[in-house]
């Protein structure tokens, strides 16, 4: 039998990556009991070590997410972490149904809440949030318990951007915000006021690799930002040590992110690594 929701409990719907760990750790520091619905095939099993309750739930059975979270006393919930989007994007609807066997809530979200709408990220996630809300699970700002991990305004590293990089930032910022508005991606690569690469479905990591191949002389800048009307419940860009290593490997000079709206995963360690590898990190 489901417990009554508890203000001292935070629900966590977790996908891939380090971010669910940071959210859980931040909530625990705030005195919250963390109940984690881990998306099967995506969330790390080690996440169980930092949560009070942990269970894998099928990706396409939203009713199971709701029942598990409510059984742990959760109402306020944060949903973070990557999902294998490319695999889903490449599958037809009949194949998705056969592979994931969606429950009635998931089917209702697709055939009712999304009927006549585009399958853009923000539209899909808003529909999921609405369906969760109808079951008593309320998604909240994903940065609420981890504000210390957000990007600051200005240069965050000891490594300073060059004058040329400063010009590329001025040129590229309006462009990265525009592609966000169009829901194309969150990142662009710029060198000498030329756009080298634009992120699409492949994600930032592969886009960085592509930019490195296209700009052999290096010293290019990666700009990453959310769309202007992004929803803080599930649309917060992230960078971290892997981003910095990849930028260094592909000869980038700087990383620019939106201040107060970008997670820097393991912030102190990431900025220290950026200084070691001579990558300037700037909050715009």
Automatic annotation (TrEMBL):
Which positions are tagged coiled coil? Answer: none
Q: Which Pfam families match?
A: LpxI_C, LpxI_N
The record places domain LpxI C-terminal at: 153-282
Q: What are the LpxI N-terminal domain coordinates in residue numbering? A: 10-148
The protein's superkingdom reads: Bacteria
Q: What is this protein's record name?
A: UDP-2,3-diacylglucosamine pyrophosphatase LpxI
